Amino acid sequence: MLYLLRMLLLALHFLLVGLAGLVIGLLRPFNPDNSRLFARLYSVPAAWLMGIRVKAEVAPLRDQPPGCVIIANHQSNFDLFILGQVVPRRTVAIGKKSLGWIPLFGQLFWLGGNVLVDRANAYQARRAMQATTRTLRDDTSIWIFPEGTRNPGEQLLPFKKGAFHMAIEAGVPIVPVCVSRYSQRLGLNSWRQRTVIVRSLAPIATAGLTTQDLPALIEQCRAQMQHCIDHMEGELSGK
To answer: Which GO MF terms are attached to this record (predicted)?
Structure first.
C-alpha cells in the first residue's frame, strides 16, 4: 500500500515539476543554469517522498569551476532524484534521443540546454559530441554516465570513450561522482529511511594528454570510482 501511495505521489510530483519547469524553460530557454534548477525541483521533494536521505560529500565538485566533464555511475531511473541534489551551476547533460519524447521531462531536458544523442546514427552522434566539446570551452560543464546504461550491479561496466575524448580534446579536468549502491535496497514499501551517499573525487587533469593516453585515463577513472563505491558500501554496512 505504501509503495502504491509513493508511486502516485511521485507521479503527481513529476507532473507538477514538469509544468512549472516548462514555464521557467520558456521564459529563459537554454539558460546554462536551467538544468541545475530543474534537477533540484525534481530531486529534493522526490527523495523525501521515497524515504531517502542523501548524504552529499561533494566539495571537490562544488569547488571546481564550470568547464569540466563530470562522470557518475548510473543505477536506475531514480538517479535523477539522488544526483539532482548535487548538480553544480552551469552544467548540462548528455542523454539518448529517446528522452526527448518523454512528456514534459523531455521538453525540460531540451530547454535546459542538454544534449540529445542519437546513438543509432554515428554521424549525428559525432556532430553532437563536437558541439558538446565546444560547450566545455564556454565554461559549461558536461555530465555523463560513462557506463552508457543502467547498472545496479556491484561492478562498474566498462566505460565508453566519449566523455574522455571530449575532456582530452577540450583540455578540461574530469570530476568523478560516485553514488553508493541504493537501487537494490530502496524499500519503497517501508517507512524506514535509507541513506544514500554521493561522493565526488578530486578532479583528474587532462591537459597535455592525447588519445594515446585514453586507455590509461579511462582505467584510472574507473578504478578510483570502483574503490570509492566499495568503500561507501563498507561505511553504510557498518551502521
So the answer is: acyltransferase activity
pLDDT band for 129, please (50, 70, 90 cuts). Answer: low
Contacts of the segment 114-122: beta carbons below 8 A, 24+ positions apart: 114/35, 115/142
Identity of the residue numbered 173: P
Q: Report the b/e string of 78-107 with b at 16+ CB within 10 A.
A: bbbbbbbbbbbebbbbbbebeeeeeebbbb
What is the pTM (predicted TM-score) of this model?
A: 0.91
What mean pLDDT do residues 101-115 have?
A: 85
Average confidence (pLDDT) over 20-24: 92
Contact 67, 139 (CB under 8 A): yes
Candidates 1.20.1630, 3.30.70, 3.40.1130, 1.10.3470; CATH matching 2-237: 3.40.1130
